[in-house]
UniProtKB/TrEMBL annotation:
InterPro entries: Cds1, Cys_Synth/Cystath_Beta-Synth, TrpB-like_PALP, TrpB-like_PALP_sf. A cysteine desulfhydrase that generates hydrogen sulfide, H(2)S. The H(2)S produced by this enzyme modulates the balance between respiration and glycolysis, and contributes to redox homeostasis. Probably eliminates toxic levels of Cys (which can induce oxidative stress). This is L-cysteine desulfhydrase Cds1. The modification N6-(pyridoxal phosphate)lysine is found at K72. The keyword 4Fe-4S does not apply. The keyword Lyase applies. Residues 43-334 form the Tryptophan synthase beta chain-like PALP domain. It catalyses: L-cysteine + H2O = hydrogen sulfide + pyruvate + NH4(+) + H(+). It is an enzyme of class 4 (lyase). Its EC number is 4.4.1.1. It holds the Pfam family PALP. Keywords: Cytoplasm, Lyase, Pyridoxal phosphate. It comes from Streptomyces glaucus. Its cofactor is pyridoxal 5'-phosphate.
Length: 386
């Protein structure tokens, strides 16, 4: 038995790290996870149609084409490699994660790939399609009524079972190599290389763990680009308030209606100092944006995509009004077929008291005129017709 008997969470380490059988299992597990990346082509960069005369191009990085259908596939792969190489994930012991859905789907996939059990701890309100996908990969769902309780429940399950609590909210920004190595930021810049504005003026992300925004912002600074990073935050989330007040201890009382993003506390993986701008986006605006996206490109997407798209469109309107040219990139995080009973259901909207009409009208007006309703058009000659 190794002299290091404890993991970071205090679980007993019941495997000898020098045992040839364990090292053979570890090598095979790492190989399988890396082989998944080697099999996967890069995700597409889609253009959102805007009038060319505006001089502003808008793109969506389509993360829904990953094997598990979301942006979280990248994170799950990184977290599994991180946990394996740190000696935290062990043969026959469960991996437990606190998640609002998409991360759990992706982690369930990787757990099955390397042959370890997986338990997803999530709010009871998680969409039925995400639950189905998690169970499809042979994992088990453990539900909590209060979204704020997922952390404690996941840690308790890990302690009870001798498993490993993955803790994406702490380790997301550490597990990803933000300097390059085909991360999402490097991929975006490579795909923009032949576009008319290859260095985007803005990249818009949304925050669940905060790991994606940290990767994007760090990469931009490391490569010495002038690109700015904006984080769009939904209702019932405290990232915006924590960023604006500088208070890392800020909390909110209920969970986000936009699955996958928004948190009731400032997560350890959220790096406020790397973010250039934040926007608070009404949930009704996010739903209006995903419906506008379907009309524009024929693709359904989840609410996190709508939150980012609303902010990206607002930035586009500012650039047009000020006569600035350039490109803006946001993320298509996951497919809308996971949320047909939510963001695409008028019954659900009514039950939630959400009226998307005014926000849909704002988007329609912007795309028709180039002007964000209620916003000054800027200096003379800076309008969309120039």
């Amino acid at each position: 038995m190794s002299t290091d008997q404890q993991t970071r969470t205090g679980e007993t380490l019941d495997v000898d790290r020098t045992d040839p059988a364990y090292r053979a299992w570890l090598k095979e597990a790492v190989r399988r996870v890396q082989a998944d990346a080697n099999r996967s082509a890069d995700t597409h960069l889609l253009r959102f149609p805007l009038p060319e005369r505006w001089g502003v191009d808008l793109y969506l990085k389509d993360e829904s084409t990953h094997p598990t259908g979301s942006l979280k596939h990248r994170l799950a792969r990184s977290l599994f490699l991180y946990g394996l190489c740190n000696g935290w994930i062990r043969p026959d012991r469960p991996v437990i994660e606190a998640s609002s859905g998409s991360t759990a789907v992706s982690e369930a996939y990787f757990a099955k790939l390397i042959g370890v059990p997986f338990v997803a701890v999530m709010p009871r309100t998680t969409s039925a399609e995400k639950i189905r996908l998690i169970e499809f990969h042979g994992a088990r769902c453990h539900f909590v009524d209060d979204p704020r309780g997922v952390y404690e429940a996941a840690a308790a399950l890990a302690a009870e079972t001798g498993g490993h609590y993955m803790d994406q909210f702490t380790y997301a920004e550490r597990a990803t190599d933000w300097r390059g190595n085909n991360n999402i930021a490097e991929s975006i810049f490579r795909q923009l290389r032949l576009e008319r504005f290859p260095e985007p003026a803005w990249i818009v992300a949304t925050a669940g763990t905060g790991g994606t925004s940290a990767t994007l912002a760090r990469y931009v600074r490391y490569q010495q680009y002038d690109t700015r990073v904006c984080v769009a935050d939904p209702e019932n989330s405290c990232f915006f308030e924590g960023w604006t007040t500088g208070d890392p201890h800020v909390t909110c009382d209920c969970g986000s209606r936009i699955e996958g993003i928004g948190r009731p506390r400032m997560e350890p993986s959220f790096v406020p100092g790397a973010v250039d701008r934040m926007m608070k986006v009404p949930d009704a605006a996010a739903v209006a944006a995903v419906r506008a996206l379907e009309r524009a490109i024929g693709r359904k997407a989840g609410g996190s995509t709508g939150t980012g798209l609303w902010s990206a469109l607002k930035i586009v309107s500012e650039m047009v009004a000020e006569g600035r040219t350039g490109s803006v990139v946001t993320l298509l995080c996951d497919p809308g077929d996971r949320y047909l009973d939510k963001y695409y259901s008028d019954t659900w909207l009514a039950a939630q008291g959400l009226d998307i009409g005014p926000y849909a009208a704002t988007i329609e007006s912007l795309l028709r005129t180039g002007v964000w309703p209620g916003r000054p058009t800027g200096r003379p000659g800076a309008g969309p017709g120039v």
